[in-house]
Design brief:
single chain; alpha+beta; 6-stranded mixed beta sheet; 5-stranded antiparallel beta sheet; 8 helices
Length: 364
């Protein structure tokens, strides 16, 4: 079993003008897949990333990539940035303007001894769709192209860990949608752990395997994405955008307009998909798009009606509303309803009922 990425930090952050807070985290992150650090602006996400990289030295801090200790203040250990086997992708691509794309990529690769190189230039360029850009200069690239080059440059430094600090934040929606499939390909094809900072819920839901929720410098939840998103004991500030993510498989087509997605616990109908049957698709269901009824609904325009069992009920920061946690077989679901509806329907843990799902967002 792989040893986790360990991070322990206890430090004062903030400024008198913006408000000071204490960053207090103790995390064990998996050395595989994408871990997302998610929270509102100022919650401590970027500071954690900088501490992992060694760009910020936390008093009393501890950072280790498996058995390789990068910081252990109690024992006087602090490995400088250039000796840590990591790549760092910032919001801005920060490419060298006097070098071609190829020159930018080779800059990162040449700094790694030949016997330690994990990635070659051409396969990385193909992976990120920049093979045709190698002879161009950065000023002739779009924002999305520049960011893909920056990611490729970080990979060619042969890191054992990739840090990404809101890499899509500076891009418009069109460029974000352009680059997301390349990030998914990296996730699928590279055995490289990634710690990914974002404050965009849909971005996290689409990419992450493991989720760390931060609020005012504290870790309020950490665990697998699907389990963590389905919790109802999170701070009220996270409840407004509550919802679950389901891993599904395209099982077939109902007619010319609808496709059927199967998951552990049932099936969903969505607009017809073009992918081959058997394709795995990730979808998101917002709590606000789920209504609850006690008997199997008939004569309704909502096509997705599934049996479920209530597992928990929690208050939200909106007066008169509650968040209901349910299970559909082995899969979670959340519904946001009024307290009046909860009372009238007698909704409490253990209650069997039907969930009507009004919206399913496909994330890939």
């Amino acid at each position: 079993m792989e040893h986790p990425i360990r991070i322990r930090l206890d430090m004062d952050r903030g400024t008198p003008a913006r408000g000071a807070f204490r960053l207090n985290v103790d995390l064990a992150l998996p050395q595989r897949g994408i871990t997302a650090l998610f929270g509102h602006s100022g919650s401590g996400k970027t500071t954690i990333l900088r501490a992992i990289a060694g760009l910020e030295r936390a008093p009393g801090g501890y950072v280790a990539l498996g058995n390789e200790v990068w910081q252990d203040e109690a024992n006087g250990v602090f490995v400088p940035v250039h000796q840590r086997a990591l790549g760092y992708v910032f919001q801005e691509a920060s490419l060298f303007p006097h070098l071609s794309v190829r020159g930018n990529l080779e800059f990162g690769r040449k700094r790694v001894p030949v016997h330690e190189r994990r990635f070659a230039l051409e396969p990385v360029a193909d992976l990120l769709g920049i093979g045709a850009l190698l002879d161009r200069r950065p000023d002739g690239l779009s924002g999305g192209e520049r960011q893909r080059v920056a990611i490729a440059r970080a990979l060619l430094a042969s890191p054992r860990l990739l840090l990404m600090d809101e890499p899509l934040a500076a891009l418009d929606l069109k460029r974000k949608l352009e680059i997301l499939p390349y990030l998914e390909r990296m996730h699928e094809e590279l055995a490289l752990p990634i710690v990914y900072v974002s404050h965009a819920p849909d971005e996290v839901a689409r990419l992450a395997d493991h989720l760390v929720l931060l609020d005012d410098g504290n870790v309020v939840a950490s665990g697998p994405l699907t389990e963590t998103l389905a919790r109802v004991d999170l701070p009220p500030s996270f409840a407004d955008d509550a919802g679950v993510v389901l891993e599904t498989m395209l099982a077939g087509h109902e007619d010319d307009a609808l496709s059927r997605l199967e998951f552990t616990g049932g099936a969903l109908l969505v607009g017809r998909r073009r992918e081959p049957v058997g394709t795995h698709l990730r979808c998101r269901i917002h709590a606000r798009d789920v209504s609850l009824v006690l008997a199997r609904p008939e004569h309704t325009s909502i096509v997705n009606r599934l049996p479920a069992v209530v597992t928990a009920v929690a208050a939200t920061d909106t007066p008169g509303h509650v968040l209901v946690q349910l299970r559909m077989g082995a899969s979670p679901l959340l519904a946001r309803i009024t307290e009046r509806s909860r009372r009238e329907l007698g909704i409490e843990p253990g209650r069997a009922l039907w969930a009507q799902i009004k919206g399913v967002a496909l994330l890939n």
